[in-house]
Design a protein that fits this description.
Layout (H helix, E strand, L loop, with lengths): L3 H7 L8 E2 L16 E4 L4 E4 L6 E2 L1 H9 L3 H10 L1 H19 L6 H11 L2 E2 L5 H8 L4 H6 L3 E2 L3 H11 L2 H6 L16 E6 L5 E7 L9 E3 L18 E7 L1 H9 L4 E4 L16 E6 L4 H16 L4 E3 L9 H8 L1
Parallel strand pairs: 10-11, 10-12, 12-13
Antiparallel strand pairs: 1-2, 2-3, 3-4, 5-6, 6-7, 7-8, 8-9
Helix pairs in contact: 1-4, 2-3
The chain binds zinc ion (ZN).
The site of zinc ion has 9 residues, from loops.
Length: 326
């Protein structure tokens, strides 16, 4: 069977990320500027969100797009078959390359290259002030290798010199518009392991108006933030929501790790907490409390002792609580 995406491309429908503009743009607001027809490549099916009768398989697609009969569509598909097969193969090949044929540590290498383009945080920079206001100072931010994107265009250009745009998109570094992500979130917080190797990062906005304030690197979260605190030695470790709360405790000499969000703790991480008593320090809000309950259940189930920090007033987090005490 033909790839429906390849057929749609041959029909000049301009498929972008599994979508194209409706064959009947006049039925749509703004001439269907934001494409309404989606393709399900696996099922060989297409469907318009607005028009009831714009849906079907490859044959229907040819009929509608060319305004011909079913017999005509079948004939067109047959006559054009060699080209469609060639295009389909190209398409399937591309799809497979995307998911499977990247070398091992492809994403990790890209993270490493990205971080090496960035500068450490300067004490009198905007980000430096922002961190200091939160009671987090240079010795701490240097230790955990915080970085900032000080020249967004230069970082984009350097990455494009090293990688193709397609690879940067597959790696999750660039968005589908061909732009480096994280543009308005200049504080880069790498997740490094005990050997100082970065496997993941979060980008943080320092401008309050930007939501969400944190953007994760696209990929699996390999381990909690500041993993090196999970060294297997007997002791207490504080488990925080987000890197800023983690850094707040590290700054004050506590051993702490973080999870990117209240709901991101993974069951397989429990084994990392060997020999640790865990104090849960998630935000005192609905999500944080639910997260603590879930994590406590997972850790207890794996034989670990946990308790809640329990001192935060409603709506507060570790950083706001400590900062208020200063
Ligand atoms: Zn339509």
């Amino acid at each position: 069977m033909h790839s429906i995406t390849a057929v749609a491309q041959r029909l000049g429908l301009g498929v972008v990320r599994g979508r194209f503009r409706c064959i009947f743009p006049e039925r749509h607001a703004h001439g269907d500027r934001t494409p309404s027809v989606s393709i399900n490549e696996d099922k060989g099916y297409f469907k318009c969100f607005v028009c009831d009768n714009v849906k079907g398989n490859v044959v229907t697609l040819v009929q509608l797009a060319m305004g011909i009969t079913r017999e005509g569509a079948l004939k067109w598909l047959k006559d054009d078959s060699p080209s469609i097969i060639r295009d389909s193969q190209k398409f399937f090949l591309k799809k497979r390359t995307k998911s499977e044929e990247k070398p091992e540590f492809f994403k990790e290498k890209m993270i490493f290259d990205f971080l090496s383009l960035l500068s450490p945080i300067q004490p009198y920079s905007m980000i430096g002030w922002w961190l200091a206001k939160r009671g987090i100072y240079k010795a701490t931010w240097d230790k955990v290798l915080l970085r900032c994107i000080d020249d967004y265009n230069l970082a984009s250009r350097k990455l494009l010199e090293k990688y193709s745009l397609e690879d940067l998109q597959i790696g999750g570094m660039f968005n589908s518009y061909g732009k480096l992500r994280y543009g308005r979130r200049p504080l880069i917080i790498p997740y490094i392991d005990e050997k100082n190797r970065p496997f993941f990062f979060q980008a943080r906005a320092i401008d309050k108006s930007i939501q969400p304030k944190e953007l994760n690197f696209q990929g699996t979260i390999p381990f909690p933030y500041n993993k090196s605190a999970l060294d297997g030695k007997p002791g207490t470790v504080y488990l925080c929501e987000g890197p800023i709360d983690t850094l707040t405790l590290l700054q004050r000499g506590f051993s702490a790790v973080g999870i990117p969000g209240a709901n991101t703790f993974k069951p397989e991480w429990t084994s990392l907490f060997n020999n640790k008593k865990v104090v849960l320090c998630l935000d005192n809000d609905k999500a944080g409390r639910a997260g603590e309950e879930r994590i406590a259940g997972l850790l207890k189930g794996a034989g670990f002792e946990t308790r809640s920090f329990g001192l935060l007033p409603e709506g507060e987090d570790i950083n706001s609580w400590f900062t208020r005490q200063l």
